[in-house]
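check these tokens.
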Amino acid sequence: MAVDLTDDNNMTTTLLLSVLIGVIAGLRSMTAPAAVSWAARAGWLNLTATGLAFLGSAITPWILTALALGELVADQLPTTPSRKAPVGFGARIVTGAIAGAVGAVIGTLGGHALRARLAAGFGRDRPAALIEDAVAIGGALLILTALP
């Protein structure tokens, strides 16, 4: 059953899930829009009467997924700048705006702090980055399956 964003009975749940998917955008900026696009395409999220209806088109989820996969690879590169650098932070806020700007800020700053702690514990960044990838992808899937 698709979420009807015009139904007031689902508003609280929808707002909470929006903040949570925004947190995912803070972890990985392209994972959130890709997940939302797949939810719209699968009919779990009704965006047809909104300016975001394009997210449910046949090609959009594939494009956003390719971008999300590219981001997962780029994040592993030693030359990738901090998510808190203006361009990365701005990208997360913009992509998270579709799904919760507040959550995107929480995900950006909280994700950075958690990853830094994990990396310090491991003595290197790669395991922490892979854990963050898993949290972003798994979290997005859990959030979308919780749609009312």
About this structure: The CA atoms of residues 34 and 118 lie 26 Å apart.
